[in-house]
Amino acid sequence: MSMAVAEARYTHRRESNYVALAMLMVLSVLSFCTWAEEVPTRVQVADPYLELHTGPGRGYPVFYVADRGEWVKLLKRHTDWFKVRTDKDKEGWVSRDQMESTLNEAGVKTTFRDTLFDDYLLRRVEVGFGAGQLDSDALLTAHVGYGISPNFSVELTLAQAVGNYSSTALYYGSLLAQPFPEWRVAPFFSLGLGRFHNTPKATLVGGAEVDANMANTGLGVRAYVTRRFILRADYRRHVAFISENRINEFNELSLGISLFF
Amino acid sequence: MNSSAIRTLLLLPLLMPFTVLAENPVTKEPGEQVVQPQVDRRTVTVPKISARDIELGAFVGVLNIESFGSSPVYGGRLAYHVTEDIFLEGTYAKSTVSDAAFRSLGIGIFTTSTPTVNTVDLTYYNLSVGVNLFPGELFIGRGRAMTSALYMVGGIGNTSFDRIDNITYNIGIGVRIVPRDWLSLRIEMRDHLFSSDLLANENKMTNNIELTFGLSGFF
Q1: Contact between residue A112 and residue A94 where contact means Cβ atoms under 8 Å apart
Q2: Mind listing the pLDDT tens digit for each residue in A95-147?
Q3: What is the four-CA torsion angle of A111, A116, A122, A124, rounded to 10 degrees?
Q4: At the fourth CATH level, which superfamily is domain A43-99?
Q5: B123: which chain A residues are within 8 Å (Cβ-Cβ)?
Q6: What distances in angstroms separate CA B191 from CA A226, A232, B169, B173, one per listed residue?
Q7: CA-CA distance, A181 to B8, in Å (whole number)?
Q8: Domain A3-34+118-260: assigned CATH number
């Protein structure tokens, strides 16, 4: 194996590792955000009964019923299900709907706050993934964004496009402007700068790797769906400055899902 | 004096404060209440419970690359359970792929393999959406039961080997067994589909089947 090939192989592998690493990082951001302080809370059954399921889902059977007036301790939460322990030491999973008809120690109805549109408006961090096309090549994207004001946010994006002859990696940071932040479905504009890296397919003879600066402009739409979810559509025009007298232009069209915190 | 006149006289002092207020409307602070209610405000506390919606784990198994045989595969995965039915997951895994069979016929396929070292590294990553289809329980002996679920996943990612990236779609089915609230085991079968022109002049969609066994924890 020649040194050049070994080198190219190494850089190539490193690149796809970065994309995967970014993806893992994004998902671990999620894990931090879902952490909550552990405070054992007791609630009292106010409905005629409280159904305890064997698992956190409506399909799991009910194996125990706590009566009205009985106190149960909240242990943990998994999606919209709560693990509780009754006075009689029975442990099971109760749906959020049923939990909301219980009373807390002050005798007030227990409430579990949902993520709402208001939280969307106050969001700071946005992480997301997308898939689409870069010209005619398939494209995968991952991004992390941070809101600096209601109208502006900054974003870091990693994208990988795979074509018949080569694969392209794009790394860029961008500034996003959203003129109507309070809309449920709102447009945004973006301006980005970064690096462009193209690796020709190994089966291709005479292909050379290209590493260059790039810039892009884009426009897109964010739509708040539900809970922590945003649907996103992006159109971007990328310009890669290959050499002094050569630039390459690419059009990106992608569709993705983002989560916000 | 008749009784109605007396009543009017007695009511006059009661009306006095109103006349005072009417004469000096400026003295009253805006928003100040005339009568302060003696009510204890009840504080509504929202219980804080740790949400265990993140699943982090590792897996090992066998990955078959169409036309190139099977190799061990190992990787990590991170999942976020959105609802009881839906989860998102990211996977990153490593394996190897060999063109030894072709080399023995005198045709090397991979550009980065050599007659002596004909195994090249393979890495893949993907992001998938999963749906929990059939919840259930597994019974072990007389007194033990574990919750389980049959799920389906599908997603998109990249498979890379021999300096070639391949956009890869994946679809799979698996069983998740939860012996403890914080622990889950899974057995999964996944098909990684990508189109490749390694063995022909035109692209051909390949089915790359993977069988894995995984262990993960809920956080």
Answers
A1: no
A2: 988 888 888 777 777 777 666 788 888 888 998 999 999 998 889 999 999 99
A3: 100
A4: SH3 Domains (2.30.30.40)
A5: 13, 16-17, 20
A6: 31, 28, 8, 9
A7: 62
A8: 2.40.160.20
Residue A56 has pLDDT above 60, yes or no: yes
Q: What is the pTM of this model?
A: 0.75
Contact B175, B149 (CB under 8 A): yes
Residue ranges of A 15-44 with Cβ closer than 8 A to chain B: 16-17, 19-21, 23-24, 26-28, 30-31, 34-39, 41, 43
Secondary-structure breakdown of chain B: helix, strand, coil percentages, each rounded to the nearest 5: 15, 55, 30
Distance CA A216, CA A236 (A): 7
The strand order across the sheet containing A91-95 reads A41-44, A71-78, A81-86, A91-95, A49-53, A62-67
For A19, A55, A101, the CA distances from A94, given in Å and listed in that order, are 39, 9, 11
* CATH code for residues B54-218: 2.40.160.20
Chain A interface includes B182 (CB < 8 A): no
Express each pLDDT in B55-68 by its tens digit.
Answer: 999 999 999 999 89
Give A161's contacts (C-beta < 8 A, 6+ positions apart).
A134, A137, A138, A139, A140, A167, A168, A169, A170
Average pLDDT over residues B149-167: 91
Domain ranges in chain A?
3-34+118-260, 43-99
Per-residue pLDDT band for A225 (boundaries 50, 70, 90) equals confident
Chain A environment of B178 (Cβ under 8 Å): 55
